[in-house]
Structures are given as structure tokens and as C-alpha cells.
Amino acid sequence: MLSLKLLKEQPDFVIERLAVKNFDARGIVAGINELNDRRRNAQTELDSLLALQKVKAKEIGALMKEGKKEEAESCKAEVANLKKRSGELETAMQEIETELNSKIVLLPNLPCKDVPCGKGAEDNVVIREGGAMPDLSENALPHWELLEKLDIVDFDLGVKITGAGFPVYKGKGARLQRALIEYFLDKNTKAGYTEYMLPLMVNEASGFGTGQLPDKEGQMYHVGLDNFYLIPTAEVPATNLYRDIILSQEDLPVKLTAYTPCFRREAGSYGKDVRGLNRLHQFDKVEIVQITRPEDSYAALEQMVKHVEGIVQSLGLPYRIVRLCGGDMSFTSAITYDFEVFSAAQKRWLEVSSVSNFESYQANRLKLRYRDDNGKPQLAHTLNGSSLALPRIVAAMLENFQKDGKVIIPEVLRDYTGFSVIE
């Protein structure tokens, strides 16, 4: 959430930066500043009235001591009018506060200076590439055909039990999922991240804190009776561990990792790009989260990018790192790097991770602070990244490592899977 101070002091800067995200903020910024001025004026008047009430209360006491009852009663009538007006101002301020909060949450985070302008994925900037492209035979299969042939994932059973987008993994397919989760968690904990097991449902306050609400209600599964939401990513419960917390500098950086199933409605998704494991309503993902001082967050971002890159490299997959343009970024992000692996049989790049710095945007919503050198609370910076999302990693592995109807398991996973080939 952007600060009122920033919106008041630098409205043109806010409007200019949000234009990079193709967001026209002029009307909202003007409305917020007008409401804030009204609130400040009302507060000034209220403070003046409350001070006058104290003066009048002393006058009444003095008049009563002097036996000037009639004058004291007149003074009491003035105080009653002052209290009435004070009550009206307090009500008005509450209404202004509600309207102000409803407007400020409509503004996305400002993109940092390194974010390129652009409208969509075609305007993203490739930072670097790595890994060798596989040389597959002409009869190489897309992963959805391999899954059926190898009998390791059953989509029809998932439809029977729940619906489309909820696959059933079995045999070596289930073992491969477990192996990847353990491998990713081990890589993360060795890099200094503390592992957590987190709730899979969150309340509204948690969804608001990390910016999923009120922006993404349509993408989240809602448990109506209890007003809970199934998590779209472990980022939500992990970051909310520190909601309403003031950390000491010695606590920073906070580094968390967690595996969770993730749930996304993905309304309107259809076509060849969502076949098989390309896009699911329930999928597994390992997440990393950092909480840092503002001056350390971009070094932490670079560290996280290198960490995720190391994991992708260890799997032997061809990959590229892409800096997202303004029009392709999330509502809450200040800068995002996507990792994409090449799917040889589909002949396309598949996103498997996003690593983002949210700067103070989430922290302001979460009231997540730390004490600076002077002991004064300051907003922290939050970051998160997928490390990694499993479905498209599995899709790329199956397609890129297929040979003579079999799939060769990367060497780094064999101690985890207990097998080297799926056939």
C-alpha cells in the first residue's frame, strides 16, 4: 500500500510511475488527496473544539465555586453544543477514513526505475539464458501424452473426484512430486532459509496484507461459511507470520521457505497452452520469502535470483531469466524476474518461477516494521520467489529428457526418487 505522505508530497511522481504499469492513477490520487485534506481539516477543527471544551470545563468549575450558577449553566449549554459538533466531526472523519482506505488500496505498487515500459509478455526483457537445448527425435511427445503413456498422472480421475485442473499423481509420478519437493526444500534450507509448514487457508486480513485482496478475489477459492480463502501461494501465510510485528535489526534478514499445495481458479483459461500440467487449479510449489531492511532488499533480490537459477541449472533444464515489463507485472510488485524453462516438445517457454521485490508495499498493509538505529519503527521490505513451482518443471523434464519412450531422471534427483528412469 502506498503511503499518504508520498501521495500528498509527490502526486505527479506516483502518476508517472504507475503509468509504466499502464495504470491511470490521476483520478484516484486526486480523490485520495482531497479526502486526506478533508480529514486533516476535520481533525484540526476537532482538536480545537476538544481544547475549548477543556477550557470551558475549568470555567464552569470556577463559576460554580463563585456561586454564579446562571453563568455556569450558560457555559454548560456551550459545552453541550461543542460536544455535539465534536461528535459530528468524529462521525464524518470515520466516514472519510473508510472512503480513503477503499481508494488507497486500488493503487498498485510503484514499479522501480529498472522496470521497462510495455503492455504484455512480448515487451519483457530477457536478462540471460542458460542450459543446453535438447535435440529430440521427430516423434517426441508432449508431456500430456507421455503422462498417459507412462501412466503416472491421471487427469480423468481428478475430474471424477473434483473437476478439471485437479490431477491425480500415482506411482512414479507421485514419487517424482515428493522428490522434487524434498530437493527444493533441501536446497533452500542449505541456503539459510528456515522451513515452515503453513495453513492452506487464510482469513481476509492475511489476504489483504499481501495484496491478494481486494485485487484477486476472482482467482481465489473462497470458503464462504468461515470466510476463509484457499491460498494461491505460500507467500500469503508465510509473509503474514510477521503481520503487526516490529522486528529488531538483529532479526533481519528473515528467510523462510515452505512447501504447500496452491489453489487458483484460473477463470477463463482454455486452449492448448493449458493442456496437461501447463495450468492447474491445484498444484504444488515451494516458496522462499525474505524480509529485509530497505537498503538491503535489492541485494537480497539478486541473491534470490541466483539461488533459483542454481536450482534450475542443477536440473539440467534450458532456461532464461526475464525482467517483466510494467504491463506484465503483478499489482503488488516493484520488480519481478520470471524464470522460464524451454519445453522442447511444445517448442515454447514455460514460466516456473517469479522472484519479486515488493519494497514496502506489503509491509505497509501488514504493519510489518523493524527498529532503526535510533529505535524508531520503520517499514521493512518483503520479497518472495517460487523455488520452484512443480507442474511446469515436471512437464519440461518429461519432454526434454525423453528418450526411446522413457524419461531419464536428472542425476541430482535420483537419491530422492529412488529410480533413474520412468518407463
Describe what you observe in this structure.
There is one protein chain. The chain is α+β, with helices and mostly antiparallel strands and 423 residues long. The protein is 42% helix and 21% strand. It is built from 13 helices and 19 strands. Strands 1-11-12-13-16-10-9-4 form an eight-stranded mixed β-sheet. A three-stranded antiparallel β-sheet has the order 5-7-6. The longest helix has 40 residues, at 26-65.
Question: Going across the major beta sheet, what is the strand order?
Answer: 1-11-12-13-16-10-9-4
Low-confidence stretches: none
User: How would you sum up the major sheet?
Assistant: 8 strands, mixed
Structural class: alpha+beta
**Into which percent range does the helicity of residues fall?**
40-55%
Residue-averaged pLDDT: 95
How much of the residues is beta strand, in percent? Answer: 15-25%
Short synopsis of the structure:
This protein has helices at 4-9, 11-19, 26-65, 69-104, 143-150, 155-161, 172-190, 204-209, 235-240, 297-315, 361-366, 390-400, 414-417, and strands spanning 125-130, 153-154, 168-169, 194-196, 201-202, 222-223, 228-230, 246-247, 254-263, 282-292, 319-323, 335-343, 348-357, 369-371, 377-379, 381-389, 402-403, 406-408, 421-422. With 423 residues, the protein is of the alpha+beta class.
